[in-house]
Amino acid sequence: MPEEIEKADNVGSVSTSRYAEIVAELRKLIETTTRAQFTIGDYALEVEPMRESGGEPAEAIFTVKDSLFRLAEDIGLTYSSVKSARLTSAKWPKDRRQAGVSHTVHRVLAAIPDDQERFAAILTPPEGRSRWTPDEAKRRVGWQVAKPVTPQEKVSAIHSLAQDEEVAATVTGDLLRRPAVVAQVKEEDRVRVVEELTRDDKVAAAVAPDFLRRPAVVARVAQQDKVRVVEELTRDDQVAAQVTTGLLRRPNVAFRVMSDDTARHQVNNAQVERGRQARESFEQTSPVAPAIRQIDRSVEFLDLITACHAFVAASGRAVPGLRDRQLGDDERVIVHENVARVRATLDWIETAVDTGKVDVDGELARLLQGE
Predict the structure, then answer these.
(1) What's the pLDDT tens digit per position in 179-201?
(2) What is this structure's pTM?
(3) Residue 92 and residue 106: Cα distance in Å, rounded?
(4) What is the pLDDT of residues 240-274, one digit of tens each?
(5) Which residue, 1, 150, 197, 355, has most beta carbons within 10 Å?
(6) 236, 274, 267: which is closest to 253 by C-alpha?
Protein backbone atom coordinates (compact mmCIF):
# COMPACT_ATOMS: atom_id res chain seq x y z
CA MET A 1 0.00 0.00 0.00
CA PRO A 2 2.75 2.61 0.83
CA GLU A 3 4.36 1.90 -2.55
CA GLU A 4 1.06 2.59 -4.34
CA ILE A 5 0.70 5.95 -2.54
CA GLU A 6 4.25 6.93 -3.45
CA LYS A 7 3.65 6.04 -7.12
CA ALA A 8 0.47 8.09 -7.12
CA ASP A 9 2.49 11.14 -6.05
CA ASN A 10 5.11 10.62 -8.73
CA VAL A 11 5.56 12.76 -11.84
CA GLY A 12 6.70 10.39 -14.50
CA SER A 13 9.40 8.27 -12.95
CA VAL A 14 10.37 10.72 -10.19
CA SER A 15 8.77 11.79 -6.95
CA THR A 16 7.08 15.17 -6.67
CA SER A 17 9.91 16.48 -4.49
CA ARG A 18 12.53 15.45 -7.04
CA TYR A 19 10.36 16.89 -9.82
CA ALA A 20 10.27 20.23 -7.99
CA GLU A 21 14.09 20.23 -7.79
CA ILE A 22 14.33 19.53 -11.53
CA VAL A 23 11.92 22.36 -12.34
CA ALA A 24 13.89 24.81 -10.20
CA GLU A 25 17.16 23.87 -11.90
CA LEU A 26 15.64 24.11 -15.37
CA ARG A 27 14.09 27.51 -14.66
CA LYS A 28 17.54 28.83 -13.83
CA LEU A 29 18.80 27.36 -17.07
CA ILE A 30 15.86 28.87 -19.00
CA GLU A 31 16.65 32.29 -17.51
CA THR A 32 20.20 31.92 -18.74
CA THR A 33 18.95 30.79 -22.14
CA THR A 34 16.49 33.68 -22.30
CA ARG A 35 19.25 36.18 -21.56
CA ALA A 36 21.39 34.53 -24.24
CA GLN A 37 18.60 34.72 -26.82
CA PHE A 38 17.89 38.36 -26.01
CA THR A 39 21.63 39.02 -26.32
CA ILE A 40 21.62 37.43 -29.79
CA GLY A 41 18.65 39.59 -30.74
CA ASP A 42 20.27 42.75 -29.36
CA TYR A 43 23.47 42.14 -31.33
CA ALA A 44 21.40 41.37 -34.47
CA LEU A 45 19.65 44.72 -33.93
CA GLU A 46 23.03 46.41 -33.64
CA VAL A 47 24.11 44.86 -36.94
CA GLU A 48 20.79 45.64 -38.63
CA PRO A 49 18.57 48.11 -36.72
CA MET A 50 14.83 48.05 -37.39
CA ARG A 51 13.95 50.49 -40.18
CA GLU A 52 10.84 52.20 -41.39
CA SER A 53 9.06 50.44 -44.19
CA GLY A 54 10.66 51.64 -47.40
CA GLY A 55 14.17 50.95 -47.18
CA GLU A 56 17.76 50.86 -46.22
CA PRO A 57 20.42 53.52 -46.25
CA ALA A 58 21.97 54.04 -49.64
CA GLU A 59 25.42 53.28 -48.27
CA ALA A 60 24.38 49.82 -47.01
CA ILE A 61 26.59 47.18 -48.61
CA PHE A 62 24.32 44.25 -47.73
CA THR A 63 20.57 43.94 -47.49
CA VAL A 64 19.03 43.13 -44.10
CA LYS A 65 18.63 39.49 -45.03
CA ASP A 66 22.19 39.22 -46.27
CA SER A 67 23.55 40.73 -43.06
CA LEU A 68 21.46 38.52 -40.78
CA PHE A 69 22.19 35.45 -42.85
CA ARG A 70 25.94 36.09 -42.57
CA LEU A 71 25.64 36.66 -38.81
CA ALA A 72 23.66 33.43 -38.40
CA GLU A 73 26.27 31.41 -40.27
CA ASP A 74 29.15 32.96 -38.35
CA ILE A 75 27.64 31.99 -34.97
CA GLY A 76 26.27 28.61 -36.07
CA LEU A 77 22.53 29.38 -35.93
CA THR A 78 19.84 29.38 -38.58
CA TYR A 79 18.80 32.58 -40.31
CA SER A 80 15.22 32.19 -39.02
CA SER A 81 16.48 31.93 -35.40
CA VAL A 82 18.52 35.12 -35.69
CA LYS A 83 15.71 36.93 -37.50
CA SER A 84 13.19 35.91 -34.78
CA ALA A 85 15.56 36.92 -31.95
CA ARG A 86 16.13 40.33 -33.58
CA LEU A 87 12.38 41.00 -33.91
CA THR A 88 11.72 39.88 -30.32
CA SER A 89 14.43 42.18 -28.95
CA ALA A 90 12.99 45.04 -30.99
CA LYS A 91 9.54 44.49 -29.47
CA TRP A 92 10.88 44.18 -25.91
CA PRO A 93 13.18 47.00 -24.77
CA LYS A 94 15.52 45.92 -21.95
CA ASP A 95 13.47 47.67 -19.28
CA ARG A 96 10.32 45.82 -20.37
CA ARG A 97 11.69 42.30 -20.34
CA GLN A 98 10.34 40.20 -17.47
CA ALA A 99 12.54 37.96 -15.39
CA GLY A 100 11.11 34.47 -14.96
CA VAL A 101 9.29 34.66 -18.32
CA SER A 102 10.85 32.61 -21.08
CA HIS A 103 12.13 34.05 -24.31
CA THR A 104 9.52 31.90 -26.09
CA VAL A 105 6.67 33.68 -24.29
CA HIS A 106 8.28 37.07 -25.06
CA ARG A 107 8.49 36.06 -28.73
CA VAL A 108 4.82 35.00 -28.89
CA LEU A 109 3.49 38.08 -27.07
CA ALA A 110 5.56 40.23 -29.42
CA ALA A 111 2.72 39.63 -31.90
CA ILE A 112 0.57 42.12 -29.94
CA PRO A 113 0.92 45.23 -32.14
CA ASP A 114 0.24 47.94 -29.55
CA ASP A 115 3.25 48.61 -27.31
CA GLN A 116 1.33 49.55 -24.16
CA GLU A 117 -1.05 46.62 -24.52
CA ARG A 118 1.89 44.27 -25.03
CA PHE A 119 3.81 45.59 -22.00
CA ALA A 120 0.69 45.29 -19.82
CA ALA A 121 -0.13 41.78 -21.05
CA ILE A 122 3.16 40.22 -19.94
CA LEU A 123 2.55 41.50 -16.42
CA THR A 124 -0.88 39.82 -16.15
CA PRO A 125 -0.83 36.04 -16.65
CA PRO A 126 -4.15 34.36 -17.54
CA GLU A 127 -6.69 33.92 -14.79
CA GLY A 128 -5.87 30.94 -12.62
CA ARG A 129 -2.24 30.91 -13.75
CA SER A 130 0.75 32.15 -11.77
CA ARG A 131 2.94 32.52 -14.86
CA TRP A 132 2.74 32.63 -18.63
CA THR A 133 3.10 29.40 -20.63
CA PRO A 134 3.78 29.25 -24.38
CA ASP A 135 0.26 27.87 -25.07
CA GLU A 136 -1.41 30.57 -22.95
CA ALA A 137 0.61 33.20 -24.82
CA LYS A 138 -0.51 31.70 -28.13
CA ARG A 139 -4.12 31.82 -26.99
CA ARG A 140 -3.64 35.48 -26.12
CA VAL A 141 -2.51 36.37 -29.66
CA GLY A 142 -4.76 33.88 -31.46
CA TRP A 143 -2.13 31.39 -32.58
CA GLN A 144 -2.61 27.63 -32.76
CA VAL A 145 -1.63 25.97 -29.49
CA ALA A 146 0.51 22.87 -29.10
CA LYS A 147 -2.01 21.16 -26.80
CA PRO A 148 -5.60 22.03 -27.85
CA VAL A 149 -8.10 22.15 -24.99
CA THR A 150 -11.25 23.93 -26.19
CA PRO A 151 -13.38 22.57 -29.06
CA GLN A 152 -12.37 25.51 -31.25
CA GLU A 153 -8.67 24.86 -30.61
CA LYS A 154 -9.13 21.22 -31.52
CA VAL A 155 -10.99 22.20 -34.69
CA SER A 156 -8.16 24.57 -35.64
CA ALA A 157 -5.60 21.82 -35.02
CA ILE A 158 -7.53 19.40 -37.21
CA HIS A 159 -7.79 21.99 -39.99
CA SER A 160 -4.05 22.56 -39.78
CA LEU A 161 -3.27 18.85 -40.01
CA ALA A 162 -5.80 18.29 -42.80
CA GLN A 163 -4.57 20.91 -45.25
CA ASP A 164 -3.56 18.11 -47.60
CA GLU A 165 -6.63 17.16 -49.68
CA GLU A 166 -6.11 13.42 -49.31
CA VAL A 167 -5.77 13.71 -45.54
CA ALA A 168 -8.87 15.91 -45.37
CA ALA A 169 -10.86 13.42 -47.47
CA THR A 170 -9.86 10.50 -45.23
CA VAL A 171 -10.65 12.40 -42.03
CA THR A 172 -14.01 13.59 -43.38
CA GLY A 173 -15.00 10.06 -44.38
CA ASP A 174 -14.11 8.73 -40.92
CA LEU A 175 -16.03 11.49 -39.15
CA LEU A 176 -19.16 11.10 -41.29
CA ARG A 177 -19.37 7.44 -40.25
CA ARG A 178 -20.14 8.58 -36.71
CA PRO A 179 -23.90 9.26 -36.33
CA ALA A 180 -23.37 11.53 -33.32
CA VAL A 181 -21.08 13.72 -35.41
CA VAL A 182 -23.43 13.88 -38.39
CA ALA A 183 -26.31 14.81 -36.08
CA GLN A 184 -24.47 17.98 -35.04
CA VAL A 185 -23.71 19.17 -38.57
CA LYS A 186 -25.77 22.22 -39.57
CA GLU A 187 -28.54 21.63 -42.10
CA GLU A 188 -27.01 23.89 -44.75
CA ASP A 189 -23.66 22.12 -44.35
CA ARG A 190 -25.32 18.72 -44.72
CA VAL A 191 -26.97 19.91 -47.93
CA ARG A 192 -23.64 21.14 -49.24
CA VAL A 193 -21.94 17.83 -48.34
CA VAL A 194 -24.65 15.80 -50.07
CA GLU A 195 -24.42 18.00 -53.17
CA GLU A 196 -20.68 17.48 -53.34
CA LEU A 197 -20.91 13.72 -52.73
CA THR A 198 -23.58 13.25 -55.40
CA ARG A 199 -21.93 15.16 -58.23
CA ASP A 200 -21.18 11.78 -59.78
CA ASP A 201 -24.37 10.70 -61.61
CA LYS A 202 -23.97 7.06 -60.59
CA VAL A 203 -23.73 7.99 -56.92
CA ALA A 204 -26.71 10.34 -57.24
CA ALA A 205 -28.76 7.63 -58.96
CA ALA A 206 -27.93 5.15 -56.18
CA VAL A 207 -28.79 7.62 -53.39
CA ALA A 208 -31.93 9.22 -54.84
CA PRO A 209 -34.18 6.11 -54.61
CA ASP A 210 -33.30 5.72 -50.93
CA PHE A 211 -34.30 9.33 -50.26
CA LEU A 212 -37.52 9.01 -52.25
CA ARG A 213 -38.56 5.99 -50.16
CA ARG A 214 -38.66 8.21 -47.08
CA PRO A 215 -42.09 9.94 -46.85
CA ALA A 216 -40.75 12.67 -44.57
CA VAL A 217 -38.15 13.58 -47.21
CA VAL A 218 -40.62 13.56 -50.09
CA ALA A 219 -43.03 15.73 -48.07
CA ARG A 220 -40.41 18.49 -47.88
CA VAL A 221 -39.70 18.55 -51.62
CA ALA A 222 -41.13 21.62 -53.36
CA GLN A 223 -44.09 20.99 -55.70
CA GLN A 224 -42.23 22.07 -58.85
CA ASP A 225 -39.35 19.76 -57.94
CA LYS A 226 -41.75 16.85 -57.42
CA VAL A 227 -43.25 17.51 -60.88
CA ARG A 228 -39.77 17.64 -62.41
CA VAL A 229 -38.78 14.36 -60.72
CA VAL A 230 -41.92 12.60 -61.96
CA GLU A 231 -41.33 13.88 -65.49
CA GLU A 232 -37.76 12.58 -65.44
CA LEU A 233 -38.76 9.20 -63.97
CA THR A 234 -41.56 8.69 -66.52
CA ARG A 235 -39.63 9.38 -69.72
CA ASP A 236 -39.88 5.65 -70.45
CA ASP A 237 -43.34 5.02 -72.00
CA GLN A 238 -43.90 1.77 -70.10
CA VAL A 239 -43.15 3.41 -66.78
CA ALA A 240 -45.32 6.41 -67.70
CA ALA A 241 -48.24 4.13 -68.66
CA GLN A 242 -48.02 2.19 -65.40
CA VAL A 243 -47.81 5.35 -63.28
CA THR A 244 -50.62 7.11 -65.19
CA THR A 245 -52.92 4.12 -64.77
CA GLY A 246 -52.38 4.21 -61.03
CA LEU A 247 -52.92 7.96 -60.84
CA LEU A 248 -56.15 7.93 -62.88
CA ARG A 249 -57.66 5.46 -60.39
CA ARG A 250 -57.67 8.33 -57.90
CA PRO A 251 -60.94 10.29 -58.39
CA ASN A 252 -59.51 13.70 -57.53
CA VAL A 253 -56.60 13.21 -59.91
CA ALA A 254 -58.82 11.93 -62.72
CA PHE A 255 -61.20 14.88 -62.29
CA ARG A 256 -58.37 17.44 -62.49
CA VAL A 257 -56.84 15.70 -65.49
CA MET A 258 -60.13 15.62 -67.41
CA SER A 259 -60.58 19.32 -66.71
CA ASP A 260 -57.63 19.95 -69.02
CA ASP A 261 -58.88 20.17 -72.62
CA THR A 262 -55.68 18.80 -74.13
CA ALA A 263 -55.52 15.88 -71.71
CA ARG A 264 -59.20 15.05 -72.27
CA HIS A 265 -58.71 15.19 -76.04
CA GLN A 266 -55.73 12.85 -75.82
CA VAL A 267 -57.69 10.41 -73.65
CA ASN A 268 -60.58 10.41 -76.14
CA ASN A 269 -58.19 9.86 -79.04
CA ALA A 270 -56.53 7.06 -77.12
CA GLN A 271 -59.90 5.38 -76.52
CA VAL A 272 -60.83 5.61 -80.21
CA GLU A 273 -57.41 4.35 -81.27
CA ARG A 274 -57.55 1.50 -78.78
CA GLY A 275 -60.97 0.50 -80.10
CA ARG A 276 -59.72 0.60 -83.70
CA GLN A 277 -56.67 -1.51 -82.86
CA ALA A 278 -58.78 -4.00 -80.92
CA ARG A 279 -61.22 -4.29 -83.85
CA GLU A 280 -58.37 -4.81 -86.35
CA SER A 281 -56.80 -7.43 -84.15
CA PHE A 282 -60.13 -9.20 -83.75
CA GLU A 283 -60.83 -9.18 -87.48
CA GLN A 284 -57.36 -10.52 -88.25
CA THR A 285 -57.17 -13.24 -85.61
CA SER A 286 -60.68 -14.34 -84.61
CA PRO A 287 -62.25 -17.29 -86.49
CA VAL A 288 -65.74 -15.79 -86.00
CA ALA A 289 -64.76 -12.43 -87.53
CA PRO A 290 -66.49 -13.10 -90.94
CA ALA A 291 -69.81 -13.87 -89.24
CA ILE A 292 -69.47 -10.77 -87.06
CA ARG A 293 -68.74 -8.63 -90.11
CA GLN A 294 -71.98 -9.94 -91.70
CA ILE A 295 -73.88 -8.97 -88.55
CA ASP A 296 -72.19 -5.53 -88.58
CA ARG A 297 -73.38 -4.95 -92.14
CA SER A 298 -76.89 -5.91 -91.13
CA VAL A 299 -76.74 -3.47 -88.25
CA GLU A 300 -75.55 -0.72 -90.59
CA PHE A 301 -78.46 -1.50 -92.95
CA LEU A 302 -80.92 -1.28 -90.09
CA ASP A 303 -79.34 1.99 -88.89
CA LEU A 304 -79.70 3.51 -92.35
CA ILE A 305 -83.33 2.46 -92.71
CA THR A 306 -84.05 3.77 -89.25
CA ALA A 307 -82.47 7.16 -90.11
CA CYS A 308 -84.56 7.47 -93.29
CA HIS A 309 -87.73 6.48 -91.46
CA ALA A 310 -87.00 8.99 -88.70
CA PHE A 311 -86.48 11.77 -91.28
CA VAL A 312 -89.69 10.97 -93.11
CA ALA A 313 -91.66 10.71 -89.88
CA ALA A 314 -90.27 13.99 -88.55
CA SER A 315 -90.98 15.75 -91.85
CA GLY A 316 -94.53 14.33 -91.87
CA ARG A 317 -95.13 15.91 -88.51
CA ALA A 318 -93.48 19.26 -89.27
CA VAL A 319 -94.66 20.10 -92.85
CA PRO A 320 -98.44 20.11 -92.16
CA GLY A 321 -97.75 22.73 -89.52
CA LEU A 322 -96.89 25.20 -92.33
CA ARG A 323 -100.47 25.30 -93.57
CA ASP A 324 -101.68 28.89 -94.04
CA ARG A 325 -98.37 30.16 -92.70
CA GLN A 326 -96.10 32.45 -94.71
CA LEU A 327 -92.41 32.14 -93.74
CA GLY A 328 -90.17 35.16 -93.78
CA ASP A 329 -87.34 35.59 -96.26
CA ASP A 330 -84.63 34.59 -93.74
CA GLU A 331 -86.63 31.56 -92.66
CA ARG A 332 -87.14 30.43 -96.26
CA VAL A 333 -83.38 30.76 -96.94
CA ILE A 334 -82.57 28.58 -93.96
CA VAL A 335 -85.11 25.92 -94.95
CA HIS A 336 -83.82 25.86 -98.56
CA GLU A 337 -80.22 25.47 -97.31
CA ASN A 338 -81.19 22.50 -95.17
CA VAL A 339 -83.23 20.95 -97.99
CA ALA A 340 -80.11 21.18 -100.17
CA ARG A 341 -78.14 19.40 -97.50
CA VAL A 342 -80.82 16.71 -97.28
CA ARG A 343 -80.81 16.22 -101.10
CA ALA A 344 -77.01 15.95 -101.10
CA THR A 345 -77.20 13.44 -98.28
CA LEU A 346 -79.80 11.38 -100.11
CA ASP A 347 -77.62 11.34 -103.24
CA TRP A 348 -74.70 10.23 -101.07
CA ILE A 349 -76.81 7.41 -99.59
CA GLU A 350 -77.88 6.20 -103.04
CA THR A 351 -74.29 6.23 -104.31
CA ALA A 352 -73.09 4.28 -101.27
CA VAL A 353 -75.86 1.71 -101.59
CA ASP A 354 -75.35 1.24 -105.36
CA THR A 355 -71.54 1.30 -105.50
CA GLY A 356 -70.29 0.72 -101.94
CA LYS A 357 -68.27 3.93 -102.13
CA VAL A 358 -68.71 6.16 -99.11
CA ASP A 359 -66.13 8.84 -99.96
CA VAL A 360 -67.34 12.44 -99.61
CA ASP A 361 -66.30 14.98 -102.25
CA GLY A 362 -65.43 18.55 -101.36
CA GLU A 363 -68.75 20.12 -102.28
CA LEU A 364 -70.78 17.57 -100.34
CA ALA A 365 -68.49 17.97 -97.35
CA ARG A 366 -69.11 21.72 -97.35
CA LEU A 367 -72.86 21.21 -97.57
CA LEU A 368 -72.85 18.72 -94.73
CA GLN A 369 -70.83 21.13 -92.62
CA GLY A 370 -73.28 23.95 -93.38
CA GLU A 371 -70.79 26.06 -95.35
Answers:
(1) 887 777 787 877 777 777 777 77
(2) 0.47
(3) 8
(4) 788 788 877 888 877 887 778 787 777 777 777 77
(5) 197
(6) 267
